[in-house]
Amino acid sequence: MSLLELPSNREERWRWSDLSALPEIAARAPSGQMPERLPWLDCATPGPRLLFVDGRLVADASEPGDVALGTVEAPVGEDALGRLVGSEGWTLRLGSGHAPLGLVQVIHVSTGAADHLPARIELDVDAQASIVETFLGDGWTNRLTRITLFKGARLMLSRRILTASGYVSLSDRVAVGEGASFVLTTLAGGGADTRFDGEVHLAGNAGFAEVGGALLARGRQRHDANLVIRHEQPNGQSRQVWRSVADDQATCSVAARVEVARGAQKTDGEQSLKGLLLSRTATINAKPELEIFADDVKCAHGATVGELNRDALFYLASRGIAPAEAKALLTASFVADAIERIGEEDVRTAFLDDANAWLAHGGAQS
Amino acid sequence: MSDVRNREAHDAAEKAATYEWGFTSDIEQEFAPKGLSEDTVRFISGKKNEPEWMLDWRLKAYRKWLEMRAPDWAKMQVPPIDYQDAYYYAAPKKKIELASLDELDPEIRRTYEKLGIPIEEQKVLAGVAGARKVAVDAVFDSVSVATTFREELKKAGVIFLSISEAIREYPEMIRKWLGKVVPMHDNYFATLNSAVFSDGTFVYIPEGVRCPMELSTYFRINAANTGQFERTLIVADRGSYVSYLEGCTAPMRDENQLHAAVVELVALDDAEIKYSTVQNWYPGDSEGKGGIYNFVTKRALCQGRNSKVSWTQVETGSAITWKYPSCVLAGEGSVGEFYSVALTNNRQQADTGTKMIHLGKNSRSTIVSKGISAGRSDNTYRGLVRVGPTAENVRNFTQCDSLLLGDQCGAHTVPYIEVRNPTAQIEHEATTSKISEDQLFYAMSRGLSQEDAVALIVNGFAREVLKQLPMEFAVEAQKLLGISLEGSVG
Amino acid sequence: MLKIDNLHATIADKPILKGLDLSVNAGEIHAIMGPNGAGKSTLGYVLGGRAGYEVTEGAVTFDGKDLLDMGADERAAAGLFLGFQYPVEIPGVSNVQFLRTALNAQRRARGDEEMSAGDFLRLSRAQADALGMSMDMMKRPVNVGFSGGEKKRNEMVQMGILDPKLAILDETDSGLDIDALRVVGDGINRIMRKPDKAVLLITHYQRLLEIVEPDFVHVLAAGRIVRSGGAELALELEREGYGAIAA
User: Fold this and answer.
1) How far apart are the first and last CA of chain A?
2) Distance (Å, whole) CA B25 – CA B108
3) pTM for the whole structure
4) What is chain A's mean pLDDT, rounded?
5) Domain spans in chain C, listed from the N-terminal domain onward
6) Cα A295 from Cα A158, distance rounded (Å)
7) Which residue intervals define the domain SUF system FeS cluster assembly SufBD core in the entry (chain B) (predicted)?
8) Contact status, residue A189 vs residue A214, Cβ threshold 8 Å
9) CA-to-CA distance for B41 and B47, rounded, in angstroms?
10) What is the mean pLDDT of residues B392-418?
């Protein structure tokens, strides 16, 4: 596959990445093997549903509603994986007077090979949407999503990666307009390696962005997130909350940057990157970066890496809770920090259940 | 030739008198031929009567350097450097061997005075009775011209020599340690230094000895167009202690001058090295013209159990600073510390920080970085905390604070955290702030001028670091922060 | 000593003071009282020289000199002291260092010699003792981690050390319990009740005036002095409220 000119670790943005498995996956043929069950969420306000298998829409399992299928407008861009996505994908465009849509659900299934898909989300003035994307299967799923939020628009995008093996790479290019709000929450709770590339521009006055999630890794898994929130206008607010858990020989890496452009005064940017190591051979990498060109700003970050608090473990034990259970309990609350940002209760509950299922699966090993 | 050069430098210095340390001494200089080649390397080695092995080492480094590429500058704008358009060696023409400081060339003495060497140490230089003892090894351009208190140090068994002398007198020790902490091929500038280093300092503290005085070196770049390639090696044997002070100034020049030093520290079991730097090299004028390029490799190997190295730096000078005093914490229970104040004004660029590489069990590190940006400058903290898989119970605490003065400067924090052991506890915090109107008005309503108020608040911001410095150094550093900010608020 | 003539001032173009007249002579203590939002704190800041408070009309002289023409630090050197309602924290700078720098800056500006470290230490110990503040607190960073009462006490210590001619004390009594109020009030009397000094007490309540008895009381409302009188006016205000008098 000649398209695959992959970046090396010498490049700063790919410092902690391992893309060596991709050429092999890209050379495979899809098996067509579908999962037994598609985890559509039951929710109070159902909306459009899309099912993509190996990057192709399965029309009889989908109800696109307001989502358009076909050529996605917008240039592909230059980033290493995002440029592979081609032009056929899905588009959600909501006008300013649009009635609430209900929860948009997209399921991506990979049956063993590589597939690439672009998406476009554009919310006009004061429009609102909430989207959940779920990733399943065992190949390489590669996505590029371009998002534009006009004045006062609000988007809540929640993603859960339940892909059993293989690779999931998701790139996002987001422009947030005046007073608009963008919240992206990601849960990496499957067995696949992942790479998240996010670039969020707060392009209007008083924009809000929150990008975070939980990365759960075991075996030889690697999760790798690289995010930039760029404050281009005054009065913006951003939050980056990431929780990483690494067991066995796994590695979780988060590089998150807040940029404050010249003149973007009264910016309030906050980062919290925390890592939890569950085994002696696991690795956590973190790079909480600030790049500031304005003086009247409030930017702070905190990063911690360690194991579970021994005092807390002892406290739970002294109240009669068995060590394994205590460990699971504390790990769950550590992870929940990053997931509890999700607004809809149905979605939040589903994500917490997924995270707990991952943790329970690991409980036997520890 | 050198007369013309000096006259020109004088004129330049007079023109831009805003730099308090901008002056050139009228001492005859001897230069290596301009440019860099194997011949330059041989010339330098020959001038110093070096043994064959040392020349071979230099040539190996030079050949390695030819294959290397200059680093990719992260956030900095570095004009290309023409390595052929510089002198790599400049020495006062007469080789000076002094028994005491009184014999020192009065011109050099005046230079020290103009350098603003701390008052206490001026007393030491002047031989005032009762002055606290500080041994000074002055590196005047490339050759170490004087060391004081050699006798007293000798009594304690401390070796404090220029590195050229040490190569001749203690070849086994130099061969054992030189390039051990910063390998010859470590990075572009360290490799260049390995090939052409002209002089520097060697310190050895024997087992169980607490060095009876603070050791001090003043670096000074005097000649035009001479790269300064210092080499410092400090070995603290088991259970020993030494505090080493390094102050740097450079006269004003129109052209940028390259400074690429290498400092290697080795601490064996239970040894402690405290290394303090105040750097106020010429930063260039307010438009960014001139100024020193300060590309320095400083690294400590805490090899022994419970060994400790503490780096403290106050960086206010240089047009471009690129330095990361680091600690390889190999010994069980070893401790690394990094306390830094970096102040940039006008068009200065500073990219500084530290690497704490934890390999030993129970090793601990503390990082406190205070960045102050003013004018149109850029100030970056770049650091790495790495915990190896066998390093149990590692602790690190990092605090990075940035203070911005004005809305045309930049402050950046780029910390890397890489942890491979679950028993580690790593904490990193960073904040960004400015001087509040409230603070400024409060101080002014008590009678302080705006500039004094700013200097006071900035000193308060930097206090945690300044208090790590030896007393008289701290006083100098406080003044320096005030001076460096003059005219930046208004 | 202080003469304010038809003073108008704005914050961000919003008029706050609208033609205020006031004369303070040496040896006098004046209290300025008034409801919230009347412009009391603005008056303090305008006299102190804070940026953002723009004088649009009127004049203020201090010992015959144009006060409004001076920077905040020059006003301090001329002998004016502003006691803050919310004293500011300055991390990393000790109280002693701060005050010594300030005192010597003022002395230099007046052409006096700087005070030696020993003399300064004696002076600050005496002032701290008189206000029941430990030297330990004097060595802590300016106001950092101080309680509200400690901050106000610290303002009085500063006043004692800087020894001004005119003190403008903005709500110095707020946040003080009854004992602290006594200490602060006694401090004001001790330091400032002298024939060559004067005080402008800006306050909302009458209780401080029981300890520091004013010679004159002025009621400030809507940016102007609407009524002046003796100490008995404060009692009347306490009894009847501002509504009746300011109306």
Assistant:
1) 41
2) 7
3) 0.83
4) 91
5) 2-246
6) 33
7) 219-461
8) yes
9) 10
10) 93
B410-419 and A283-292: which strand pairing? antiparallel
In this prediction the ipTM stands at 0.85
| Neighbour tally for B53: CB within 10 Å | 12
pLDDT classification of C126: cutoffs 50, 70, 90: very high
- Could you confirm whether domain C2-246 is CATH 3.40.605.10? no
pLDDT value at position B352?
94
More confident residue, A82 or B129: A82
In Å, how far is B481's CA from the nearest CA of chain C? 14
Q: Are strands B214-220 and B241-249 parallel, antiparallel or unpaired?
A: parallel
- The whole-angstrom separation of Cα A338 and Cα A243 is 6
What is the spatial distance between Cα B427 and Cα B387, in angstroms, rounded to a whole number? 13
Nearest CA to A134 among A253, A266, A2, A38? A38
Contact status, residue B204 vs residue B144, Cβ threshold 8 Å: no
Domains in chain B: boundaries = 2-323
CB < 8 Å to B417, chain A: 275, 284-287, 303, 305
- Give the tens place of pLDDT for each residue, A115-139: 999 999 999 999 999 999 999 999 9
Q: Are C200 and C176 in contact (CB under 8 A)?
A: no
Q: Where along chain A do its domains lie?
A: 12-308
Q: Is C48's CB within 8 Å of B441's CB?
A: yes
C24 touches chain B (CB under 8 A): no
Nearest by CB: C88 against B439, B447, B459: B439
Measured torsion, CA atoms of residues B93, B99, B102, B105, in degrees rounded to the nearest 10: 0
Quote the Cα angle for B187-B70-A8, to 5°.
80
If you write DSSP's letter for every residue of A161-200 in order, what string do you get?
Answer: E---SSEEEEEEEEEE-TT-EEEEEEEE-SSSEEEEEEEE
Q: Which residue of B has its CA nearest to C48?
A: B445
Host H or E run for residue B278: strand B272-279
Helix and strand element counts for chain C (H, E):
8, 12
- Tokens 């020049």 map to which residue? B253
Q: How far B313 CA lies from chain C's nearest CA (Å)?
A: 18
The pairing of strands A67-71 and A128-137 is: unpaired
Q: Residues B190, B194, B196, B202: what is their CA dihedral angle, to the nearest 10 degrees?
A: 110
